[in-house]
Every structure is written in C-alpha cells, then in structure tokens.
Amino acid sequence: MTNTATGFLRGPYGVAAPALLAAAVTVLLDFALLAWAALLIGAAAAFIASLWLLPSGRPAEPAGMRVVVTASALASGLIAGLLTAAVLDLWLIEAVAYGIGALAGGAVGPLVHRRIPATLALAMVAVAAAVVLSLLVTAVLLTATGVDALFTFSQMLGYGVQPDSLVKVLNDGTTFYLSAVAVAIGFKMKLFNIGVDGQYRLAALLAAAVGGQWVLPPVVHQVVVIVVAVAVGGMWAGIAGYLKVTRGVSEVISTIMLNSIATGITAYLLHTDRLAVELGTNNIGTKPIPESGQVPGIPTGFMGANTEIYGLVFLAIAVGVGYWVLLNRTRFGFDLRATGMSATAALASGVNVKKMVVWSMVISGGVAGLVGVPQLLGYSHHYAQDFPAGLGFIGIGIALLGRNHPVGIALAALFWAFLNQSSQILDFQDPPIPKEIAVVTQATIVLTVVVVYEVVHRWGRRYEQQLVGAELGRAGVSA
Amino acid sequence: MSGTQTGRGAAPPAVELRGITKRFPGVVANHDIDIEVAAGTVHAIVGENGAGKSTLMKTLYGMHRPDEGTIAVNGARVDLNSPAAAIGHGIGMVHQHFMLADNLTVLENVVLGAEREHGIGAAARKRIRALSEQYGLGVDPDRLMEELGVGDRQRVEILKVLYRGANIVILDEPTAVLVPQEVEELFGNLRELKREGLTVIFISHKLDEVLGVADTITVIRRGTTVDTVAPADVTARELATLMVGGELPVPELSESTVTDEVMLRVEGLRVESADGRAAVDDLSLSIRRGEIVGIAGVEGNGQSELIEAIMGMRPAARGSLTLGGVDITAWETRRIREAGVGYVPEDRHRHGILLESPLWENRVLGHQTRRPSANGVWIDAAAAKADTRRIVDAYDVRTPGVDVLADALSGGNQQKLIVGREMSGEPRVLVAAHPTRGVDVGAQAAIWEHLRRARAQGLAVLLVSADLDELIGMSDSLHVILRGRLVAEADPATVTPERLGSAMTGAGLDEGTGEGTVESVEEGTGEGADQSDQPDRSDQPDRSDRPDPAAPDTPGTPDTGTQRPDDEDPA
C-alpha cells in the first residue's frame, strides 16, 4: 500500500468504506435473518474488515490495552447501529431503517477505534463489566430463591421495550437526569448534596402554588414557574452552603436536616387553610396550573404508545448541555473543578473557595429545583401528597453510575428508569416474582461501578505514567 | 571512621546486591547495581532526585522484586517478595514520611502490627525500655505521640524497626524533615546503633551530612552504581561531581540590575497563625525592579506565612503591602495575581498543581482570568494549549504532550512547568519558594538562567530557599528570618553558607561582625539555637491531619494533603 493510499484511508474514506460495507451486508442478510441479527453481523463484519485492511493510526499499546480498545470500539459501533435502527424503525420500513442503522454502526466502530483515548476505553469496559457483574449477582439471587433467572430477564426485557414502557422510561429518565446532574455539580466540588430531595419537593410545591395562583400569558407563565422552582431550590441548598463557609457545618449533615425541615414545611403548607385546595375525594393539592402554564407533551402515536413524552425533556437536555459547557468551557467551571480537585491549589491560584462553595451549592440546588418541574407542568399540573418523593436519592446513585459526566449520567438515568419500569411486569407473573430484584440490580451496579471504576482509574493513571516514561525513555536513549 | 575496609574479609557482608536491574515499562529504573554493605557500618547511598535510590531501597525492602540480579543477606541468598519477608531477614525500613498514629502512645504505635512479638502490655513496655536504653534512643513508651517533636517521632520509627528484630536498618532521606540540631542527634543515634553492631543504610542527597556520618558511600547516577568511596578520600565537591556526572552548575548573578524603583514593599507586617500567635512579626522589606531578595531561615520560621500573606492567601493582622505604589494589603489572591505577581509555591502538590488535570489546564491554573488562558468568561483551551507548548519547549519540560495528566510527570518536570507558568504573562514580581527543589541539575541551571534573564528585564523576585548556595548565589540582598522576624541582613557577595547557617539558628551573629558580612539588625535571643519547639513548622508530614490554616473551609477532604514536595520520580 503506498503512502498516499494510507493517508487516503485514514481520512474520511476509512470511515465511509466500512459503513457502506456494513449497510450492504445488513441489507442482504435482512432477507434471510431477523433485522437486528443482520445488523449486528453486518456492523461487526465491517469493523473486523476495517481492522484488517485499514491502518488504525493508534499509538503502540500493550496487547491488553489493544483488546480493551478494540472491544469498546466494536461495542460502541454495534450499540450505535442498533439504537439508530430501532429509532428509525418507528418511521421507516424495516430494511431501510436497519440499513441506515448499519451505516451508522459501521462508521462509528472504526471511528471510535481510531480516536478513543485508552483511558476512556478502559472506563467503558469497566462500566460494562459492572453491568454484567450486577446482572450475574441478580441472577444468582433469583436462582437461589427458586426463580428462573433467564425467564425473569426475558420477561423484563420484553415488557421494558414496549412503546408505553419506553415513554415511561424516557419520562422517568428525564426527572432522574435532572436530579443526578444536581448531585453531580456538588460532586465535582467534593460537596455531597444529599438534600436534592428536600430541595426539589419544596421547589415543586412553591412553584406549583405560584403557577396555580394566576393566569399569565403562555411562555411567561411557564418561565415564571421554572424560575420560582430554581430560586427556591437554589435558596434551600444555599442555606447549607452558607452554613458550611460561615460555621463549618458539613453539608452532608445540614442537607439531611434540611430534607426533614422541607418535609415538615411542605406538610404544613399543603393544607386547605394555606396553599392547598380539595382535589376531588381524599386528595388535596395546590390549585391546578391553568392551561397557559402547562407544557404540552410530545405525542407518541408514531411509535404506537398511548402516553405522551414530557415536553420538558428538552429542558433536561438543555441542562445537560449547560452543565457540560459550564464545567468545561467557562472560567467558573474551571474554578469549580480546580476547587474540587485541590482546594489548596485553587486557593493559591486565586479562587475564592468560600464563594465557590456557596455558588456551587446554589447552582446544585437550582438544578434540583427543576427535578419536579417536568411532572408538574407536563402531567399532574398540581403538587399533591402523591407527588413523587425520593428522586433526590435516586439521583445520587445515578450520578455515581454516570461518573458525573453529562452523557454518562444520561445513559445511567435511562438504564435506571428501564430497570424500574421493566420490573413492573414481575408482579403479574404467576407466581409473582418480587420486583425488588430491580432494586438489587441497581444497588449492585452502583457498588460495582464505584469499585471497578476506582480500580480502572488507578490503572489508567499508571498506564499514562508508563506511556510518559516510555516516551522519555526513548528520548533518553536517542539523546 | 574508615575502618570498614578491614573487617570485610572476616564476616560476610550484611547485604550484598549483585547486578540488580529493575525495569518499569519503558524505563529502566535500576540497572547493574552492585553494592556490598559491611556489617556494623553506616553505609550511605547518595544520588540525585530520580537517580533510582528509592527504587533500589524498595527492592531491598521487598516492596517489589528485581527483574535481574541477586540479593544476599549475611552471605545467604534471599528472595524478598514482601516487606514481611524483608523483616524476617532482619531488614527494616524507616520511611521518609512517618507512619505514626497521633492519638496513640509510643507503646501502642510500636506494638501496632507486631503484637506477636511481646504482646501489648507490660512485656512490650519492658522490651521498648530495654531497646531504648541499649541504643540510647531516650524513648518513653507511655508518652502520647502527638506530644512528640519530629526528632522524637523519628526515634520512635527507628525503635519500631528494632522492635521487630531488624539488624539492618534502612533510613530513607531521614534528615529531610529535621532541623540541623535534630540531624546531629540523629547521627548520634546512628553511631550508637553501629556501636551495638547494627548495620545502617542511609539514603540521602545531602553530601555534607553523608560525609559526616557514613563509613562508606555508594554513589548512584541514572539508575546504576557509579562508585563506592570512603568519606576520607573525597570532598563534597568531588562527590557532587560523581553524583551528577559532570560539573555542578553554579548559581551566580552577573552585574547588578537593581534599579531605584521599589516594586514590592512590605511594612510592619504581622501575620497570625490560627491560634493568634504571631507567625510573622513586624516584618519590613522592599524589593526593587530587577532585584532578587533572598530570605534565609530554618523552615518554619515564618517564611510560608510571609509568602502567603503577600499572595493574599492569609490576612495581614497588621502592616501593609504595596505593589508598585498601590496598597494591596486587602486584595484577594486573584487580584494580586492579576496585578502581575507570580507565585512558585513551596509545596507544589498542595498549592501549585492539579495532579489529575492535563498539563494545559495546569497552565490555566492561576491565570484563569487572563489571556491566553481565558477570553472573557470562557476558557480558551486552544490558546492555553499553544502557550503550554511554548512553556514545555522553553523550560525543557519532559513530556510527550500537553494533554497528559500532570500526575504522569516527574516532580522535577512538574516544577519546571510551574516555574514556566508563573513567569508567563510578564509578571512584575515573582514570589518563589524553593524554585529548584527536586529538579535535576540541568533543569536547576535552566531555572536560574530564566530568573537571571527576567531579573535583567526588571522582574522583582522574593526568593525563599533551603539551598544556601542558591540563596547566596542568586540574591542581590539577603535577609535572615527567625521566628517571624528579619534578624539579620547579609551581603551575598561576601557571606559564606556556614556563617549564614549559624545566623539562621540565631546563634553566632557576632562571628560575622569582624568582616561585617552578617549584620545583626536585632538582638539575638541567645537560646535561639533550640528550634525544636517551633509550633508551626509547616513541613511536618505527620501533622498533615491538622486543619490547614490557609484554607479553613476546605470542602471535603483534600486528598493532596498528604503529598509532600520532595517526591521522587514515580518510575
């Protein structure tokens, strides 16, 4: 192969060729096999062919690391292909959808393989290992209690991918995501905001009360409700931040206490003498928000579901993007991360650490204030006693699982919601299978991810040190 | 002292290392090490930071296994695959950073993990008393650890090793944490150990100390043994040349570039520690454009507090700071930095670097608000990376790129990056604490050259250093700090390290009056030689659990708190 050809294949053609190959194989196999099987084979074949025939352009790596990188690249290609195909399948005919899916998968695999940093590949493998491990633990537990584990999983999977379930997963994932981002902002500063729970409940109650009080022009109305929720959440968390910098109170203690206080306050305010009204029999809640303040859902008829996706799913996406931009592109985010990594170094660099503590608590609380909003404006339109509680604690687990990364959190939130939703079917088995096994899976996965990730993180650091050592060793020899 | 050669024929050497090679992927940390340590001697191993001393000692203490070569203890070949195995063969190690629990007594600390030896009660106490008596350690088993000074703590560490039955004691840079008086006491202890027939392996890079206490000296350079000499046969200079494999660079300034324009003025400054005690008291000095002002002093006499007050990291209880005629006493750190004050901190891991961030983000640190790191409220990653590449080239930072984590670099290369960063953006004043600590000789010369060049362009430098040669060579004027006050002013052109050293302890101020090189500005306190009760010595690693007065609201637990500045190369 000449040099020009090598350069040529490292460029866009190195991606386009395997993508086309994958699509072709998939479309052909689609006549003989199930579409998803065809896609998997097609994308995998294209990936392997690209490994064989094209220059990878990766630096010299130990064999173990090459395996890790290859596996994570192949897996990302297959997953990307399947997801693309599954979504497109809702609109397009199967052969076309899966053809395009294979196109995407065939392109993503080699692309990831060429670009992915070794440490990220390690992290992906670590998370995958944790997922497999926790499923195994769950399976062992099921088998030990005399339940067929494979049957259970297949029931869950079958129910979880039904259209109505998927809508529910997306809606729950939206709230989980907001909650986890709120927690993650604290984590980035080494602050443990356990108080997301109290912050969002108080924020949702007051925002619902304000929203139900008046009729305002559309857009303005929703904005007012959201601003109130953010302000209340931020203020409530800010109390903990203020106590920390002025009195040295650990935010762990103060946010737990503030959770209890928030519970008391909401119970007090949710009374017909105060913010609540009768909502039919045996239920009281805030005055319903009029239509001008509601956010319409996204109809899901196209995918055969009967429920709507929260319109505010876009709010969650915006928060995720904002979180990433804030942390990685702004001076404020730099100061925040620096303080989290080393408060002393941040202080020496000119960061006002006290101010950062208060601000990050306020921002964390502000995002926490949003947790109840999609449900409030998109579904229930009032805050009643049956408003979901405990989302703040779920957020902690998801933030840990997603390693505080906006994309990682999103995947973790969806996965969590999927486990929640798919386990609902277990009650309807005969004999019923305890649906708490989903909780076992969630708990195991958080534990294993935290442990495995820490191990992988150390490996990664050592690996990088070795790379640097190797580089300098070579330099030393040549000098 | 050099009677070691005679006893060699009779008994087998206590430790014999032959052809030891230890590779880490991509680097050879040790190769072809040959050392023979005669029983009952103090054997010093000297080498620069990163020469491979620590790797070698870890091999000997069983913390990792060599790839090639053999180890023999008392003539018998052994396989040391863990510290427990090493202790089993009578090899004990006293680490540079103490591993003691403050809230336990000496007895409890000693028996911890060695409960099988003599239990945890009266028998153990008796054994500790006996050992302390035998080796003249003067350790009381019932004192609470937190009451003990650094010297006592080190003796407890030695006792711990002896209690476990070691007859070969490895000491890793034992003097790094001690003041000169404590060093003398330690050497007394070591001679006592030797008299009782124990073998001591002593790792250091301080040549005067090594010449004073060792019977035999082995020099390590670039991972291998280059020579073994008797202290009587070499001078410190020759030893240094062996260590670096060439001439040592000399810190010196060319003609004076000092101007009349005062850049930084400190007047009547008082800085208080957390308990209200004066760490810096009524201190005044001024630095002019193009001038390097050195501060000499035993660590813990207020240097850190002075620096942190200038940087706005600690409030001034009294007095004022003026930068180019503007009063900056009440300014925040960021504003002071923006006004053109660079800062090379004494503890780079605590104050200078984010270990888990890439190099280019470390370039941004401390320059978050200024170009090229930032553009408005945004971080300008592309420009910051480009500028990091400039620093990497100009300061010879050995790294494959600017995206690797700072953690992956050796301490010396981290330091070069910090110095390069702090010299960027045309600072008017540079506050430099130990700017060449832990860097190799070539880098040291380069950093000095950068300082000289910046000085010629009008930079005003406050230089705090423990390296007296550096202070004398690089300063235009030199102050001695003792207990937070400037007690003497020395003329760098004529003062010797010895005289400066004695001025630092508060003693011997009159000695200099004959030539007028060290001029006392204040009455010495007479008993100033006793430094061991200095309550705020910031370099005590065993006190790192103490809340840091500079950051009272440290959120969470800063994990960098235990890392020390004098780290060795990771590989």
From TrEMBL, chain A:
It is a multi-pass membrane protein. Pfam families: BPD_transp_2. It is found in: Cell membrane. Its main location: membrane. GO terms for molecular function: transmembrane transporter activity. Keywords: Cell membrane, Membrane, Transmembrane, Transmembrane helix. CDD domains: TM_PBP1_transp_TpRbsC_like. The keyword Metal-binding does not apply. GO terms for cellular component: plasma membrane. It comes from the Bacteria. The chain crosses the membrane at residues 12-29, 35-55, 67-85, 91-112, 119-145, 222-243, 252-270, 309-327, 357-379, 391-417. PANTHER family: ABC TRANSPORTER, PERMEASE PROTEIN (PTHR47089), GUANOSINE ABC TRANSPORTER PERMEASE PROTEIN NUPP (PTHR47089:SF1). This is Nucleoside ABC transporter membrane protein.
TrEMBL record, chain B:
GO terms for molecular function: ATP binding; ATP hydrolysis activity. Keywords: ATP-binding, Cell membrane, Membrane, Nucleotide-binding, Repeat, Translocase, Transport. This is Nucleoside ABC transporter ATP-binding protein. It comes from the Bacteria. Residues 15-247, 264-508 form the ABC transporter domain. One of its GO terms (cellular component) is plasma membrane. PANTHER family: CARBOHYDRATE TRANSPORT ATP-BINDING PROTEIN MG119-RELATED, GALACTOFURANOSE TRANSPORTER ATP-BINDING PROTEIN YTFR. It holds the Pfam family ABC_tran. The keyword Cell membrane applies. Residues 534-548 have a biased composition (Basic and acidic residues). It is found in: Cell membrane. Residues 551-563 have a biased composition (Low complexity). Signal peptide: none annotated. InterPro entries: AAA+_ATPase, ABC_carbohydrate_import_ATPase, ABC_transporter-like_ATP-bd, ABC_transporter-like_CS, P-loop_NTPase. Residues 497-571 are annotated as: Disordered. It is a peripheral membrane protein. Its main location: membrane.
